[in-house]
Amino acid sequence: MPRRGDHSKEELKNLILDAAEALVAEHGAAGLSARAIAKQIGYAAGTIYLNFANLDEVILHVNARTLDRMYAAIEPAASGRAGPVTRLKRAARAYVEFARANPSLWRLCFEHRLPPGSDSPDWLDRRIEGLVSLIVEPVREVTQSTGRALETTAQTLFSGVHGICMLTLTNKLDVVGKQGTEQLTDALISNYIRGVTSAHSE
Predict the structure, then answer these.
(1) For the chain, is the Cβ count within 10 Å smaller at the N or the C terminus?
(2) Handedness of CA 152, 158, 162, 164 (dihedral sign)
(3) Measuring CA to CA, which residue among 161, 105, 109 is closest to residue 135?
């Protein structure tokens, strides 16, 4: 078993997070425990709690890493020279592709619940806000919305795509019809944006 001095505190934290990610990716959230992490890195289970307050804090940092990778995967699709609706559709597809490639880590980001009375840390909330912000500019371009209306449209589109994505990953999409995931996200974006722009023109 490694000695505590074999790794710096920062290295040990990264080892713990790497192991936690691997366990979630392979076994889902149910496979994550301090004992399993410790076994993976070759340290005593108490080492986890010398570096993180509890398992919830480990999960929060794992989720931050996942959200950073999600942002990096979606940002190129949401930017560029294509029209705003095309960019929104590409961003939605990139979101779905990321979730399909990382289903357990993706679900952990949105299904993990902190104990009652605990607040999500600002550094994690900012990452989720960052994901929504990726579609704000194309939404602004195509709808000419500002302020609360712009925020509502972006949040609604994000929530809608997220819901389709969840149905896809839980194999429930067939329950609501026979359309494929990409067809549904494309239709959601096209029809919602059409409705918003029509309302503005009235």
Answers:
(1) C
(2) positive
(3) 161
Contacts of residue 64, Cβ cutoff 8 Å, sequence gap at least 6: 123, 124, 127
Amino acid (1-letter code) at residue 17:
L
Query: Taking CA 62 as the corner, what is the angle to CA 128 and CA 47, rounded to the nearest 5 degrees?
Result: 145
| Per-residue pLDDT at 1 exceeds 90 | no
CA distance 164 to 153: 17
Q: Which amino acid is at 169?
A: L
8-state DSSP, 3: -
Rounded (5°) CA angle 91-92-93 = 90
Q: Using the predicted structure, report yes or no on whether residue 4 has a pLDDT greater than 60.
A: no
pTM for this model (two decimals): 0.90
Q: Describe the crossing of helices 9-27 and 55-78 by its angle, rounded to 10 degrees.
A: 80
Q: Nearest CA to 107 among 21, 28, 27?
A: 28
DSSP 8-state secondary structure symbol assigned to residue 54: S
Average pLDDT of the chain to the nearest whole number:
92
3 pLDDT higher than 60:
no
